[in-house]
Amino acid sequence: MRALYIIIFSLVLSVQHSRAQQIPSPDEKIPFACTFSKDADPSWGDDDFVQIFFFVVPEGWKKPVYIRILDPDVGGKIDENHNNFNSKTRFSVYGGPKAHSDPASKAPGHAGNYKCGMLMSTRVFGNDAKYDNQWVSLGPFNPVEGELQPDVGGRVLKLVIEGLDGDDGNLYKLFLSSEPNANREVEGANGFAYEYTFRLSDEKGSVSHLYPFVPDKVTAVKIKVFDYDDEGMIRVVSVAKKGDVCQLSAEQSLWMESRHRVSKEEINTSLDVQFIKLKDVKNNNIVVFISNQYGETMPFYTSPIGGVPKYIAKIGVKADE
């Protein structure tokens, strides 16, 4: 059964690559990922000033790949300024054993050795106008140097983003590319994260999405959100749920959580966790992670496995007597 699941997972992944390369992806409708520097106030929307993304490249892909960053510097019109831009951000790529499989890479809060694996590239950006709103490439990387993880469909490269000195917010996008100077898709690839810090849209009525995949044996999920600021509502849509509204309860500090049961129809499908804007609030950054009933974090895929989930209505038919 496990082997069959891996085969099905890989086949589904291979037909969705066209929207899988960018983080945040078009399906997520998230303006930017976000990482603040270490002197920032956590109430601005970043709990630990570290963000980790993973890129999975199919085993059959033998050409070099590049991780491209839109607006990697901390300055200019996109980033969040606090008392003049004075911040730096480090982007580091890891591969090799334990880059993904080590539990520290997946744990929320990033308190452990989340830099496990083999360091392949690192670069620090400050306030530099030449990078403002421009794409910059890291690499090339040999996919064979990524950690082989058949459960997620191939070899995995890890990108660790750390806020260093300063107190500003670095907003950026990412793209896994087959070319150094253009965004060209890597066929069959995908991106994912276990904890996601991002900027919500400013417009009232906008909806942002996260797509966690529900594997076998999951019976419940817990959604935890940091610094949501009571600006809207969160609901879960799936093949079995038309819109399960999250009843957020305060847990500690700025964290809130909501628990949801998983039905058998939702196993081996993606959930659509929707953040629905009900107020005109600008520059709201939040952190989200989702865990199962065992406390294990669940990955958000930028291209939802199995496609964007759609509610399937159950229509009862009564036989004529």
Q: What layout of secondary structure does this protein have?
A:
Elements lengths: L1 H13 L7 E2 L8 E5 L13 E8 L7 E6 L18 E7 L22 E8 L9 E7 L5 E3 L4 E10 L5 E9 L12 E4 L1 E5 L7 E4 L2 E2 L5 E7 L5 E6 L6 E2 L3 E4 L2 E7 L7 E2 L1 E6 L7 E8 L7 E2 L20
Antiparallel strand pairs: 1-10, 2-10, 2-12, 3-9, 3-11, 4-7, 4-10, 5-6, 5-9, 8-9, 11-23, 12-22, 13-21, 14-20, 15-19, 15-22, 16-17, 16-21, 18-19
Folded structure, characterized:
This protein is mainly β and 321 residues long. It has one domain (2-301). Helices cover 4% and strands 39% of the residues. It has one helix and 23 strands. It has one helix at residues 2-14; strands at 22-23, 32-36, 50-57, 65-70, 89-95, 118-125, 135-141, 147-149, 154-163, 169-177, 190-193, 195-199, 207-210, 213-214, 220-226, 232-237, 244-245, 249-252, 255-261, 269-270, 272-277, 285-292, 300-301. The strands form four sheets. Strands 1, 2, 4, 7, 10, 12, 15, 18, 19 and 22 form a ten-stranded antiparallel β-sheet that branches. Strand 16 and strand 17 form a beta hairpin. The chain is globular, with a radius of gyration of 19 Å. The protein starts with a helix and ends in a 20-residue tail after the last strand.
